[in-house]
Amino acid sequence: MTVHIGAKTGDIAETVLLPGDPYRAKWAAETFLDKPRLVNEVRGMLGYTGSYKGRPVTVQGSGMGMPSLSIYVNELIKDYGAQTLIRIGSCGGMQEKVKVRDVILAMTSSTLSTPSRGIFKELNFAPAADWSLLHAAAAVAEAKGVATHVGGIYSSDVFYDERPDLNEQMMRHGILGVEMEAAELYTLAARYGRRALAVLTVSDHLITGEALPSSDRERSFGDMVEIALEAAFA
Ligand code: HPA
């Protein structure tokens, strides 16, 4: 039991999937895991542990934004020994070639700041995915025939951005999509020697203004969850 996670030691698997939305954690666990059981409901941030093809997996909500994710990932790593942490979430598309429903595998994540910013001072640390996970996820996505892009993303601190010029600079530099969590996940994984990846579904588009209708979300998000689970055990 930690400040924010009520699970007993041993109730959290070494492999953890991290959706931002606690109800997506419930859906992913009930849809893809065998015998999922609720292991955390502190603050309604649901966490479930079950198994995927016989291997233990936890799906734990991270909340929105890096300060929230940082709390859960610090506790999952330091108190529960999580080894492989894969964010499954949505993002906004930032390139014409990236379409709504496509999957993005975040190789790197640019950011203005993360909760870890204080450590680095004037240094610009480069948060990057674990290569073995990234490589495996790309192979799984290709085998499944899922439209997938691999490259840099942008972890923003704000959804309602009063500085659209920053998005423009990101787009100009080939950034594929924007979300709000991956840079801190990658930074914490680097610090503690764990494996991390963000597998993202494009739910809306900053150039076209298109947004995924809620009726389409489950099917599209399912590809992302399967890619994450298969990559974790490749
Ligand atoms: N901005 C930030 N985070 C997001 C977005 C977005 O457009 N879409 C999904 N997560």
Characterization of this structure:
The chain has a single domain (15-232), classed as Rossmann fold, CATH 3.40.50. Strands 5-8-7-6-9 form a five-stranded mixed beta barrel, surrounded by four helices. Helix 2 (66-78) packs parallel to helix 6 (182-192) and helix 4 (131-144) packs across helix 7 (214-232). By secondary structure, it is α/β, with parallel strands linked by helices. The chain has helices at 22-32, 66-78, 117-120, 131-144, 164-172, 182-192, 214-232, and strands spanning 15-18, 34-40, 47-52, 55-60, 84-93, 103-111, 148-155, 177-179, 195-205. The mean pLDDT is 96. It binds hypoxanthine (HPA). Hypoxanthine binds at residues 90-92, 156, 159, 178-180, 203-204.
Report the count of strand segments: 9
- Strand line-up of the largest beta sheet: 5-8-7-6-9
Radius of gyration based on Cα positions: 16 Å
Helical segment count: 7
Low-confidence stretches: none
Q: Assign an overall shape.
A: globular
**Which small compounds were modeled alongside the protein?**
hypoxanthine
Percentage beta strand: 25-35%
> What's the number of structural domains?
1
Largest sheet: 5 strands, mixed, barrel
Named at the architecture level, the CATH assignment is 3-Layer(aba) Sandwich
Report the mean per-residue pLDDT as an integer: 96
What is the class in the CATH system?
Answer: Alpha Beta
Q: Could you estimate the helical fraction of the residues in percent?
A: 25-40%
